[in-house]
Amino acid sequence: MAKPDGVVPGSIYLFRHGETEWSLSGQHTGTTDLPLLPEGEAAARELADILRHRRFERVLVSPLQRARHTAELAGLGDFEVEPLLREWDYGAYEGITTVEISERLGRPWEVFTDGVAPGETPGETVEEVAARAQQVIDKVWPNLERGNVALFGHGHALRVLTAVWLGENPRFGQHLILDAGSMSVLTHHRSTRCIGTYNLSPWRLLKDSTPDSTPDSTT
């Protein structure tokens, strides 16, 4: 049961799907339904070891196969498909990189501040992505009164959801990083909504143990 100050005992565990061909190349992957690469499948299986002794009151997963397969390989196959967890609709920028978009526009481009243009799909504003995120939080709030919740989704949409959880402007998400295959935890400290853990991923664990190693940079 929620405390009088609105704090619930449970936390939200966020999982970005494992690596795909386009997440590796930096191409914006909104509506395109790509499968995981073998490396993405391996990272998802590593999550299973982390989650082996954790119990979740509810597991919601984006309808796209890269998120669904990540949840299955992580050992959380008993999930609900939640369309609200789909990735940002990039409209005309689907399938192209930030560098290519910037070259096309003749100036530096950033999705959180500049938005997208309509294409084969209409695209979404950051405010529309934030509205979906708030609906997800509202949907799982009763479950957080009993325990933890897991959400499997996508990089940009989960970064916006984090900003919404914190009560920040959704554009705050541009200051957060979520690597493919990563796990994060949104929680409370007393009456304040906080980030407990963010962007915990296999390569980051490797980097921490071998300081001279540097992961590939992707968008």
Automatic annotation (TrEMBL):
SMART domains reported in the protein's UniProt record: PGAM
Gene3D superfamilies found in the cross-reference section: Phosphoglycerate mutase-like
Entry superkingdom: Bacteria
PANTHER family reported in the protein's UniProt record: BROAD-SPECIFICITY PHOSPHATASE YOR283W-RELATED, SEDOHEPTULOSE 1,7-BISPHOSPHATASE
Protein's UniProt name: Histidine phosphatase family protein
Species the sequence originates in: Intrasporangium calvum
